[in-house]
Amino acid sequence: MSQEQLQSTGKLRVQSDLLIAAFGIAVKSVLVCKMAGFDWGLERGWWMTAATASLMVAPVALLSGSRRRWALWALYIFWTAVMLGDLTHALYFGELMSWQSVGGVATLGSITDSITELMGSGHLILVSDLLIAGSVAAFMKFKAVPSRGRASSRREAIALVLIGLVFGSASMKVHFEKSTQGVFLRVWSQRMFVRLVGVVGYHIHDSVGFAKDQIFITPPTEEALAAVADHWAAVDDKITKRSTATVPTVDEGTNIIILMVESLQAQVVGMKVHRQQVTPHLNALAKESLSFSAFYHQTHQGRTADAEALILCGLHPLSQGATLFRYPGFPQTCLPEILTAELGYHTASFHALQGSFWNRRAVAPNIGIDRLYDAEDYAEGREIGMGLGDYPFLRQTARKLDRLPEPFFAHVITLTSHHPYKLPSSHLRLRLGKLGETYFGRYLHSVHYTDIAIGAFIRHLRRTGLLDRSVLIVLGDHDMGRLSGSGEVVHIMDSSADASYLPKIPLGARRHMGGDDPLTRMDWLRRVPLLIRFPGGANAATIDTPTSQIQLPSTILSLLGLPTVGRDFLSGPMSIAKGNDALIAFRDGSGFMGDKVYINADREGEDDGCWQLSSQSRLNNEDCSAMASEIAIELSVSDTVIIHGLSRPSSQVQP
Q1: pTM exceeding the 0.85 threshold for the entire prediction
Q2: Which residues make beta-bridge pairs with 412?
Q3: Cβ pair 416, 262 in contact under 8 A
Q4: Residue 597's CB: how many other CB atoms inside 10 A?
């Protein structure tokens, strides 16, 4: 065919505006991954990023004239906005946004400070091209865009689709060669997945998955139902065998007060900095409590909301989003419902944010909360960070507890020690020197303020006698946060600070929180305090048996003398016996069992790890294979229970 014939029939060619838009979207995808600390798998990630960017732009090619220009701008601005949100979300949560996290948009107004803290040069880079283009557009007039024929538009669209298919095929070829052909089917780590398919590819996959879960829901398979039944039966069997190794019991009618402290990590309880106790009141409480030194949080993206589902309903968090948003119905029988139905308890929840935050107002009645106290129920006071400061909040909460009919169950959630840990100067009581200028120093100030508020709260309970008519449970809901505003692992010390000001904490944490040592990183990011104070300070002791949040609901039933066999919870009560081999599973697939620790690798090129906890020594991965399989099964069972609303017949509850 001659050159003239080729020109007459038209080649598959693409105009520069479409190519520039596709290139810009692809580049921003790479930048988000880099700035969020995801690393970047160039060999595989770039091919799929180019493919998805081309496919996104292809439909615009079918338009002509001014409609094409405006559609292209709208598409480009849309993806820029998405990636701005992704970067901010990743810097705080460590992961990109998902459709499930969209349910939390209503809460953004309450965390403006945290969002502002995370804003930086990365956000400016993502919008710099739009700012430049907008400035140019303000000073020049564009010529009318000539209309293109339908045939020419179709050829451009086909060309972009072909480009996308070529790049996509090249990417999949590499995936097959690297034995990752199931990349779209087995997404066990969002960070890894984004590195392999890019930001646009991730959002396409997330949208398809959301539609499948929420719109085209398929019933559970017989295999999935059998796995759930087997897991519940195994939980019952373990409870029966270990009935003598659980926590002590209390008298009938004893109140239960759970104080869940925002971002409280175990490492700061008992810590001294420049001879100052960071948590003097919690330290004093620990001396008259059953103190669990190896207690681990199991939260994920939902953070505080995940902790609530774990300690009240005994369910693992979902891999994406918060259960309270995605599945607020809760047909499972949760701890507050049981206490009301079987012991006549009045149940209440206290938090200083609006009831819409984390969807708690909608969820509360479904999990058995009789009365939800939120921001509207508290008098005005000094606001710090997200809302009412912990001191006025706990002071007013203590007075509300005085008026509750006994026996009662109260779930109290603090707020001030929330990221980004900025207190007014009038509340800075610790003398931290240069450490006070760092991220970690701000955290210590916030925790110290909350500890003072907790001390006043406990004094009120002690003075009124309520403390010795109650079991007081104090725990941290989750860690202090993984990422700094620069996308790096949170630094305890800024580079400008003198290292001699570091408090005595693990070496790995002195470099970075969750530094090079996997065990140190897990310990820093997962271990939170748990104190159970019995009436009169009875049964005070330190328990070093590994325990976790999902065991709390069964544990509370056990200490009240209620049966734990046959419940909807996915774990039995905590054991205080040596040699406990109960499984502690984390959402990322890692976990503990007895003296073994399994860490599911989350970095490309790294292997999974198996360690012996007591000796801190590396074992063969085969030594943890059974544990890894059991963790995967437990997480899958939890997902099935939540997604399909499964619960156990009340007839299965055994005394």
Answers
A1: no
A2: 259, 350
A3: yes
A4: 24
Residues 6+ apart with CB under 8 A from 453: 389, 390, 391, 393, 394, 395, 414, 416
Tokens coding 117: 């803290």
How many CA atoms within 13 Å lie on the side-chain side of 590? 25
Beta-ladder partners of 527: 296
As beta bridge partners, residue 260 has: 413, 475
Tell me which range, 192-196, 417-421, 451-455, is most confidently predicted by mean pLDDT: 451-455
β-strand pairing of 408-413 with 255-261: parallel
Q: Is the peptide bond before 407 cis (omega within 30 degrees of 0)?
A: yes
Nearest Cα residue to 18 out of 70, 78, 60, 46: 60
3-state secondary structure (DSSP) of residue 147: coil
Residue 285 has pLDDT above 70, yes or no: yes
Length of the chain: 655
487 contacts 95 by C-beta, under 8 angstroms: no
For tokens 């990636």, the residue is 83
Q: Two tokens at 64? A: 């002509």
Mean pLDDT of 307-311: 96
pLDDT tens track for 569-579: 999 999 877 66
Q: In this structure, are strands 346-351 and 371-373 parallel, antiparallel, or unpaired?
A: parallel
Mean pLDDT of 245-256: 90
3-state DSSP assignment of residue 492: coil
Q: Spell out the SS3 assignment of 255-324.
A: EEEEEEECCCCHHHCCCEECCEECCHHHHHHHHCCEEECCEECCCCCCCHHHHHHHHHHCCCCCCCCCHH
- Residue 642 has a pLDDT of 94
Q: Are strands 470-476 and 371-373 parallel, antiparallel or unpaired?
A: unpaired
| pLDDT at position 375 over 80 | yes
The answer on pLDDT for 70 being more than 80 is: yes
| Tokens of residue 111, six digits | 């965390």
Q: How far is CA 429 from the centre of its chain?
A: 30
Q: How far apart are CA 635 and CA 638, in angstroms?
A: 5
* 600 — pLDDT class (breaks 50, 70, 90): confident
3-state secondary structure 5-40: HHHHHCCCCCCHHHHHHHHHHHHHHHHHHHHCCCCC
Interatomic CA distance for residues 261 and 311, integer angstroms: 13
Q: What distance in Å separates the CA atoms of residue 384 and residue 422, rounded to the nearest whole number?
A: 8
Q: Quick one: average pLDDT of 142-146? A: 52
Cα 566–Cα 571–Cα 573 angle in degrees, nearest 5? 90
Q: What percent of the chain is modeled with pLDDT above 90?
A: 42
End-to-end CA distance of the chain: give it in Å, rounded.
Answer: 87
* Tally of CB atoms within 10 A around 3: 7
- In the prediction, which pLDDT does 579 show? 64
| C-alpha distances out from residue 606 to 47, 54, 171, 192, 526, Å | 22, 31, 21, 11, 21
User: In whole numbers, what is the pLDDT of the chain averaged over residues?
Assistant: 82
Please classify residue 228 by burial: count the beta carbons closer than 10 Å to its beta carbon, then call 0-12 exposed, 13-18 middle and 19+ buried: buried
C-alpha gyration radius of the chain = 27
DSSP letters of 175-205? HHHTT-TTTTT----HHHHHHHHHHHHHHHH
d(CA 141, CA 647): 65
In this structure, are residues 440 and 492 in contact, taking their beta carbons and an 8 Å threshold?
Answer: yes
Instruction: Note the pLDDT tens digit of each residue in 548-568.
Output: 999 999 999 999 999 999 999
What number does CATH give the domain 253-577+631-652?
Answer: 3.40.720.10
Looking at the chain, the whole-number percentage of residues with pLDDT higher than 70 is 79
Confidence bin at 104 (pLDDT 50/70/90): low
CATH 3.40.720.10 intervals, the chain: 253-577+631-652
